[in-house]
Amino acid sequence: MVQEPQSPKRTVRSFEDLRVFQEARELARIVYALTRGGSLSRDFALADQMRRSALSIVSNIAEGYERETDAEFVRFLYIAKGSCGELRAQALVALDQKDVSKEQCEEITARCRRLSVSLFKLIVYLRSSGRDRRSKKP
Known about the structure:
single chain; 4 helices; disordered C terminus; de novo design (two linked rop proteins)
């Protein structure tokens, strides 16, 4: 079991309980909705890559959590954090191509930045906790 760094009383029993997973899932929902309409939906390569980046964030949080050790979890959190940066860059390209509005771009980039900070805080917490989750798994 993991306790999230900013709420020590909250015990996490599955990756779905993690606040970072919930934020990543909401970001993915927004990206998928955005890429379904307007000119971005016609830019297949960019829309697909934005979806892949958003999906990578969610998936790596889940996969890392399901690994046996916090060290492996941290590795996957770093990958998710990298995908946040990738999605921010893609949102800026979409803005440059006039596929998204300035407001849409700012919403995605702000969510990515917040999520990246949250991922980093979880990484720091896990690296400093010195725990081994193997003995606590069912």
